[in-house]
Amino acid sequence: MAAALIALAIVLLSVVPPGLRPVAASQNVEHAAIFLLLGAAFGLATPRHPRLKVITIVAFTAAVELIQTLAPGRHARWSDFTVDSLGALAGLALAALALRLVDHLGAVHAARR
After folding, report:
1. Model pTM?
2. Where are the domains of the chain?
């Protein structure tokens, strides 16, 4: 559910006129941060199919850039796609590490019983 809400927020913020979008940091930092959150939420919420997760998240970042070409005052950039994808992939990697840690701790706990 969190991943879907973050994805919806990304799409909505991507199509509003630039003057209406909140600005908290540099564009690249904002892009990397929100897509890192998306990648982490998506990685934690979906079954463990790493290749499918990577394909899905990169396709989503591409779709977000393409959708912007339809919005007045917005445009698609390769640099945004790159930052978005790298942020999302970093989020997926963090989620994978968290899941492995949980599995490991569960195994350690089970072995102590």
Report:
1. 0.87
2. 2-14+27-112
